[in-house]
Write a structure and sequence with these properties.
Layout: E1 6-12, H1 24-27, E2 37-38, E3 41-44, E4 60-73, H2 90-94, E5 98-103, E6 112-117, E7 127-133, E8 136-145, E9 148-151, E10 157-165, E11 170-171, E12 192-196, E13 199-201, E14 206-209, E15 212-219, E16 222-230, E17 233-236, H3 245-252, E18 256-263, E19 269-287, E20 290-299, E21 309-313
Antiparallel strand pairs: 1-7, 2-4, 3-4, 4-10, 5-6, 6-21, 7-8, 8-10, 8-11, 9-10, 9-14, 12-13, 12-18, 14-17, 15-16, 17-20, 18-19, 19-20, 19-21
Length: 316
């Protein structure tokens, strides 16, 4: 089996646990780095059996599941009428507790897709993941995932662990597919702008973690994973200034608005907006001989499920 003959497809399910049948043309997520299936297995190994001979008794498999650690570079929607309605990682966003609003027709108005967190049970989605591994197909049904974005003066990447119930792989040939042509977003001094409290700051690294809490529900007749809570955070590392303002903000839990705007070579934007970011930690660091203050913010609600938005906007 060849290590590069792998493929990941991910599509939102209409009914949880019903195969959404993702296709390479519409549901491809291009991994950045190797990706491998994990099959956690729990067994009653019979170690407590008292027998006339040494060693455990019979084993019984109690449960199995499947998980896939996936990372991908984040891409835009594209240009004009051919632009995508939603980004390639749409299913990762929806299966981590988000809702989406799409606008624009790609002709008179650029297409845009804005994601926001949701706590409404009816809006919480699952997805079907297909993982092809050179001759084998693993189907992860009723899947959900956590979600985080990060960049350190390079391409913006997204990461998540897809978790779903176990099903045995089947022998299926790797389907034909083509690499996406949408442009990636980069964190450079010309393609990324970050504001904290309305003022522009220079940073060397950016992390946004949606903080999705994924838990397994296991009971007779049912096994599934659900998003049950969230604790979103943003981490940035601006240069230190010789004032006590950061420490006072930490002491008083003073909130600020953080906006991080990423741009690609087409001029498309991807904007992370956190209206009420409260500092929770300040850690010392350095960058090229200058002191930095790595700051972690907890994203709070103002009026329910408005902790942040993530918005893609294409170009005409």
């Amino acid at each position: 089996m060849l290590t590069r003959r792998k493929l990941v497809l991910y599509k939102v399910e209409t009914v949880k646990g019903t195969d959404a049948v993702p296709t390479p043309a519409n549901d491809l997520i291009l991994p950045n780095g190797d990706v491998n299936i994990a099959i956690p297995t729990e067994q009653d190994t019979g170690e407590g059996d008292l027998k006339s001979t040494f060693g455990p008794g019979d084993s019984v498999t109690i449960k199995q599941s499947m998980s896939l650690d996936l990372g991908s570079r984040v891409r835009g929607l594209g240009q004009g009428g051919a632009a995508l309605l939603t980004p390639a990682i749409h299913a990762m966003l929806m299966a981590s507790g988000h809702v989406v609003t799409t606008t624009g027709d790609g002709s008179a108005t650029p297409r845009a897709a804005e994601y926001a967190p949701t706590s409404v049970a009816a809006n919480l989605k699952s997805a079907t993941a297909y993982f092809y591994e050179d001759g084998l197909l693993y189907k992860l049904l009723a899947s959900v995932n956590n979600l985080s974005f990060e960049a350190s003066m390079n391409a913006l990447t997204v990461k998540g662990t897809i978790q779903g119930k176990y099903s045995a792989p089947t022998v299926v040939a790797l389907p034909a597919w083509t690499a996406p042509t949408q442009k990636i977003y980069r964190m450079t001094n010309t393609l990324c702008a970050v504001t904290e409290g309305g003022g522009t700051i220079n940073i060397g690294a950016f992390t946004f973690d949606a903080g999705a809490d994924v838990q397994e529900l296991y009971e007779t007749g049912n096994q599934e994973f659900n998003v049950v809570n969230r604790n979103p955070i943003i981490t940035i590392d601006p240069k230190a200034v010789a004032t006590a303002a950061d420490w006072l903000a930490l002491t008083n839990a003073t909130s600020v608005q953080i906006v991080a705007t990423f741009t690609n070579e087409l001029g498309e934007t991807l904007v992370f907006t956190a209206p009420k970011a409260v500092p929770t930690e300040i850690a010392p660091g350095d960058r090229a001989g200058q002191i930095t203050r790595q700051k972690t913010f907890s994203l709070k609600e103002t009026s329910g499920d408005d902790q942040y938005t993530i918005k893609w906007t294409s170009v005409l």
